[in-house]
């Protein structure tokens, strides 16, 4: 059975999972979920928090985008690039988990809040809180100093190979530009080089231009 990704094309978390599926060239079906339906009983039976996305693998349901991405890599370890180190390589695994934690603690929470103010509120006609936007961009700028130091020594966040930790940044990284911030291209040469690398990958370009629904085959 083809994997079914239930989400919404506007959703950053849906895009995160879709980017991994495309990167590993795994056939799947994107089933668009209307925002008005995510709190209904039929949906929360699958996703108890009423959020998107969730993955249906022949009746096995996984939710939370980063967990879904890890599941995909574990299920298809030899298809496409290996995006998580082998568990037997203790040091490489530690560096990957370190990089994944960096994304969650030092990027996502600030980028998400800035994007909420700079982009997502506009979808609903709500006013932007400029002070909140500026505060989160300022904090994110400081955190990217750490990224610049890491990336001055290696190609990607966990070493010299692309991992899920890099891909996790793509949706909100892209949305930052829509929000009016050029941090990822102006912060420093190593951050800019890294961002250009990961954001220009064919998998991400396919996700950015993907149709709202339908089967994806390779």
Automatic annotation (TrEMBL):
<dbReference type="InterPro" id="IPR010987">
    <property type="entry name" value="Glutathione-S-Trfase_C-like"/>
</dbReference>
<dbReference type="GO" id="GO:0005737">
    <property type="term" value="C:cytoplasm"/>
</dbReference>
<dbReference type="GO" id="GO:0043295">
    <property type="term" value="F:glutathione binding"/>
</dbReference>
<dbReference type="GO" id="GO:0006749">
    <property type="term" value="P:glutathione metabolic process"/>
</dbReference>
<dbReference type="GO" id="GO:0004364">
    <property type="term" value="F:glutathione transferase activity"/>
</dbReference>
<dbReference type="InterPro" id="IPR036249">
    <property type="entry name" value="Thioredoxin-like_sf"/>
</dbReference>
<comment type="similarity">
    <text>Belongs to the GST superfamily. Phi family.</text>
</comment>
<dbReference type="InterPro" id="IPR040079">
    <property type="entry name" value="Glutathione_S-Trfase"/>
</dbReference>
<dbReference type="InterPro" id="IPR004045">
    <property type="entry name" value="Glutathione_S-Trfase_N"/>
</dbReference>
<dbReference type="InterPro" id="IPR004046">
    <property type="entry name" value="GST_C"/>
</dbReference>
<dbReference type="InterPro" id="IPR034347">
    <property type="entry name" value="GST_Phi_C"/>
</dbReference>
<feature type="domain" description="GST C-terminal">
    <location>
        <begin position="89"/>
        <end position="218"/>
    </location>
</feature>
<dbReference type="Pfam" id="PF00043">
    <property type="entry name" value="GST_C"/>
</dbReference>
<dbReference type="InterPro" id="IPR036282">
    <property type="entry name" value="Glutathione-S-Trfase_C_sf"/>
</dbReference>
<dbReference type="Pfam" id="PF02798">
    <property type="entry name" value="GST_N"/>
</dbReference>
<keyword id="KW-0808">Transferase</keyword>
<dbReference type="GO" id="GO:0009636">
    <property type="term" value="P:response to toxic substance"/>
</dbReference>
<protein>
    <recommendedName>
        <fullName>glutathione transferase</fullName>
        <ecNumber>2.5.1.18</ecNumber>
    </recommendedName>
</protein>
<feature type="domain" description="GST N-terminal">
    <location>
        <begin position="1"/>
        <end position="80"/>
    </location>
</feature>
């Amino acid at each position: 059975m083809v994997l079914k990704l239930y989400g919404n094309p506007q959703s950053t978390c849906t895009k995160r999972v879709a980017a991994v599926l495309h990167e590993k060239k795994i056939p799947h079906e994107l089933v668009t979920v209307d925002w008005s339906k995510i709190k209904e009983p039929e949906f929360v039976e699958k996703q108890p928090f009423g959020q998107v996305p969730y993955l249906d693998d022949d009746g096995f349901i996984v939710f939370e985008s980063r967990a879904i991405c890890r599941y995909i890599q574990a299920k298809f370890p030899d298809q496409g690039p290996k995006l998580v180190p082998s568990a037997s390589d203790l040091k490489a695994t530690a560096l990957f988990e370190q990089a994944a934690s960096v994304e969650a603690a030092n990027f996502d929470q600030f980028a998400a809040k800035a994007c909420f103010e700079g982009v997502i509120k506009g979808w609903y006609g709500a006013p932007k809180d400029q002070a909140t936007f500026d505060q989160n961009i300022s904090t994110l700028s400081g955190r990217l100093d750490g990224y610049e130091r890491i990336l001055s020594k290696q190609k990607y966040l966990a070493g010299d190979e692309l991992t899920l930790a890099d891909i996790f940044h793509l949706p909100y990284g892209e949305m930052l530009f829509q929000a009016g911030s050029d941090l990822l291209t102006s912060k420093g040469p190593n951050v800019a080089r890294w961002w250009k690398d990961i954001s220009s990958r064919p998998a991400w370009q396919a996700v950015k231009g993907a149709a709202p629904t339908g089967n994806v085959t390779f």
